[in-house]
């Protein structure tokens, strides 16, 4: 049985991952803020040895990175460096959860080899953390797997993110208010991502995978799906504001993950939205 350590174990991904791992009878140690600051070496001195570290601890809301860039870089970059040092000393492998780092892609779907772009402190912190991962593998032989998830969604996600925000508006405000209807994203339901993550546990060496659905949806298309599921015609208000450096479409090339991990997404956008609507007790009975 693999002994696993999860950093950021109380977050959106971590809380659901812990439940899944416990159902599959893994030995799991959770490292949260309660146990200490992962940026501090002293925190790691009391952490028991494990076989694999699943490193989730991170600041996640991109707009906030502009208000406190140092905190984002410290948590994602320095926190990852401390985690890698723990792995180097104990012989553990690491699975690092990175992010979408491709900017406006030249081609779709986007392969792992596409050029990287860091237009905000959040992306910079993730790219720096990836560089640390590669260095520790190449120089210290730490086994590392990097996952670049595209846009995750699912139960427990904060309403500052698009899909939970739209569901909240549909159920509680009976109208949709968005900045822009046009941008398209590759959305992946959280349970599919967790399955990909678990498939990485036995890997050794160095690996890097895009993890997405391979399909993109615009904001307008998601709203239309929600309206159809609830049999509603709520008004849709768009400010038609395009953000600076807006990425208009993302689609993940997931062939490598399919081949190496024997994984593929199984939850359609329609099924994912239905699950979230049913999680809310105020959801329309027609959903």
User: What is the number of helices?
Assistant: 10
| Series of secondary-structure elements, N-terminal to C-terminal | EHEHEHHEHEEHEEHEEHEHH
Biggest β-sheet strands, sense, barrel: 6 strands, parallel
User: Total strand count, please?
Assistant: 11
CATH fold descriptor:
Rossmann fold
Proportion of residues in extended strands? 15-25%
Q: In angstroms, what separates the terminal alpha carbons?
A: 41 Å
Low-confidence stretches: 281-287
CATH homologous superfamily designation: NAD(P)-binding Rossmann-like Domain
Could you state the oligomeric state of the chains shown?
Answer: single chain
User: What would the average pLDDT be, to the nearest integer?
Assistant: 92
Neighbour order of strands in the largest sheet = 2-1-3-4-5-9
Describe the overall structure:
This protein has 287 residues and is of the alpha/beta class. It is 40% helix and 17% strand. The protein contains ten helices and eleven strands. The protein has helices at residues 12-23, 41-45, 64-67, 69-90, 121-140, 162-173, 190-199, 219-230, 255-261, 269-279, and strands spanning 3-7, 27-31, 52-55, 93-97, 144-149, 151-153, 176-178, 184-189, 206-211, 216-218, 236-238. It has a six-stranded parallel β-sheet with strand order 2-1-3-4-5-9, sandwiched between helices. It has a three-stranded mixed β-sheet with strand order 6-8-10. Mean pLDDT is 92; it is low at 281-287.
Question: Secondary structure elements and their pairing?
Answer:
Layout: E1 3-7, H1 12-23, E2 27-31, H2 41-45, E3 52-55, H3 64-67, H4 69-90, E4 93-97, H5 121-140, E5 144-149, E6 151-153, H6 162-173, E7 176-178, E8 184-189, H7 190-199, E9 206-211, E10 216-218, H8 219-230, E11 236-238, H9 255-261, H10 269-279
Parallel strand pairs: 1-2, 1-3, 3-4, 4-5, 5-9, 6-8, 7-11
Antiparallel strand pairs: 8-10
């Amino acid at each position: 049985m693999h002994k696993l350590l999860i950093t950021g174990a109380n977050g959106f991904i971590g809380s659901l991952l812990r439940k899944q791992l416990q159902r599959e009878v893994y030995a799991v140690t959770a490292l949260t803020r309660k146990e200490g600051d992962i940026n501090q070496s002293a925190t790691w001195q009391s952490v028991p040895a494990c076989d694999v570290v699943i490193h989730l601890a991170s600041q996640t809301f991109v707009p906030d990175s502009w208000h406190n860039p140092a905190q984002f870089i410290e948590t994602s970059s320095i926190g990852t460096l401390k985690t890698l040092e723990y792995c180097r000393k104990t012989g553990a492998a690491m699975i690092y959860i990175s992010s979408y780092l491709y900017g406006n892609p030249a081609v779709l779907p986007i392969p792992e080899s596409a050029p990287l772009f860091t237009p905000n402190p959040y992306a910079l912190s993730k790219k720096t953390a990836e560089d640390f991962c590669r260095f520790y593998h190449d120089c210290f032989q730490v086994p590392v797997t990097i996952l670049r998830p595209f846009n995750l969604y699912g139960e427990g996600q904060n309403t500052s993110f698009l899909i939970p925000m739209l569901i909240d508006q549909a159920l509680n405000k009976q109208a949709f208010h968005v900045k822009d209807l046009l941008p398209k994203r590759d959305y992946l339901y959280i349970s599919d991502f967790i399955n990909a993550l678990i498939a990485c546990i036995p890997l050794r060496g160095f690996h890097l995978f895009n993890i997405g659905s391979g399909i993109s949806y615009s904001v307008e298309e998601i709203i239309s799906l929600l309206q159809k599921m609830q049999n509603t015609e709520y008004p849709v208000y768009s400010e038609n504001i395009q953000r600076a450096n807006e990425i208009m479409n993302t689609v993940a090339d997931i062939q490598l993950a399919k081949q190496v991990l024997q994984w593929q997404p199984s939850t359609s956008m329609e099924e994912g939205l239905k699950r979230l609507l049913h999680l809310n007790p105020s959801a329309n009975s027609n959903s």
